[in-house]
Amino acid sequence: MSNTTIQLKWSEVTAAPTTLNVAEPAYSNTTGKFFIGNSANTPILIGGKYYVDRVDEATSANTANVIVKRASDNSFSATYIRSALFGNANTATALQTARTIAVSGDVDSNSVSFDGSQNITLDLELTNTGVTAGVYGGTSKHPIFTVDVDGRITSAANTDVATVLSISGDSGTDTVNLLSGTLNFEGGDGITSTVTNDKASFAVDNTVIRNSGAQSITGDLAVTGNLVVMGNTSTQDVETLVVEDSLIELSANNAADALDIGFFGKYTSSGAKYTAFFRDASDSGKYKLLAGGTEKPSTGNTVNVAAFSRATLDANFTGGTVSGLSSAIGISDGGTNATSYTTGAVLQFNGTSFASLANTGTAGIFGSAAIVPVITTDAYGRVSAVSNTAIAIDASAITSGTLPIARGGTNQTSYTTGAIIQFNGTSLATLANTGTAGTYGAATHVPVFTTDVYGRVSAVSNTAIAIDVAAITSGTLGIARGGTGASSFSTKGVIVSDSSSSTGALSALTSATEGHVLQINASGVPVFGHLSGGFF
Known about the structure:
Layout: E1 9-11, E2 25-28, E3 33-37, E4 43-47, H1 49-56, H2 88-91, E5 99-101, E6 107-109, E7 112-114, E8 124-126, E9 141-147, E10 153-160, E11 164-168, E12 173-177, E13 191-196, E14 199-204, E15 261-268, E16 272-280, E17 286-293, E18 309-310, E19 346-349, E20 354-357, E21 371-377, E22 383-390, E23 420-423, E24 428-431, E25 445-451, E26 457-464, E27 494-496, E28 507-509, E29 517-520, E30 526-529
Parallel strand pairs: 1-2
Antiparallel strand pairs: 2-3, 3-4, 5-7, 6-8, 9-10, 11-12, 13-14, 15-16, 16-17, 17-18, 19-20, 21-22, 23-24, 25-26, 27-28, 29-30
């Protein structure tokens, strides 16, 4: 049949179907295998891409788990063949042709003929290197050996060891027999020699001046000429220090203004404390007098200001400029105890300092014929708040007359209970009731009203609803009302009901593909498509 498509039952996830109708075909894309059902509805494996691939990959090369194929020369490769052998190889007890086995290299050996009928023995002996057998080395000799790439000694000899050591000093020379003599290390004035663990060492006492280690000199030391100390620290543990210079230079190596310049001292107050007077290089060169320091100013020739408190200075100032104070001058010292004020503000003493009073007045015009100004004053008698309040009086304050229409009144003093009010030209007056009490209008009826000149309902009745189809101008008539639930359908479409609801709208199924047929999918929904054998 032309243009007829027949498809098989198939699966993308299952390796094999569990059951098939007789002669029903099925294919698994998961394993690449093809099945057909027998009379017992049992799937039988009959082929598929899996087996085609196995045949296509056949080779004559020695490849595990691959079908063997002969090469063009009728051969193939294999690691071994498990099979019964026939001919000479099946019954032989010896090699057809005997072979000679020998060993070469740095060994001496015999050669032996081998045909497989019996065991053989090769006698091996290392090749002579020419070295004389004997003992090498001793008390006065040390051995010298030559070793080849195979680790064998190819030559050996004895060499005499030196037994005499020559020694010399600032004066005099001598020799020591290394085998039987003793080398003595002798000290001197202020010098002690010690030999321990094959090591000789010399120590000097404090009577000897040396260029390393701590030393002390008992008695006076007089230096004629200049005394130059090249170390990093010069400590003078004296009670009185006398210096002839009237000016002392500090920080001679401060080439980049990176060091603090001054002096500090130590005192005891709840532990060790420090006080310092110095020029702070990190604070624009300001001079600072500090006390109560908990950190000695030594690291990097700087003072950690955070570890100190400001010290008290008792002095008279007769010149210079006072600026940059860390706190305001107090009232008791003739100051204001404040550092700033608000421009134009009134000042007041708050008990500790002069302070600015915030402006409280509100600029403006307050009060009128219909408005009363409300004023609030503070403790200083200043207007702190002011606002306009409209005049408002209680109705009890009006004791005579009737409020006319022109003043927002009714120009009346009484009305009929429940009546509608209307303006008759001079005052608000009562109108007589005209309506008929009742309930009008429903899902199937329309209320018909009659109104008077005032817009009031003077008559009302119920009229049944009756309309022509032409009056329906929007919406779609649903299945429940005998309609289709849809406003249009595709041309040449097959009309089907909603797949999820019994009251859903009808729809049109269409297909422009040749060979499509209308069928039911696995969910029971009608769809167009090529004929399929289904899934397993």
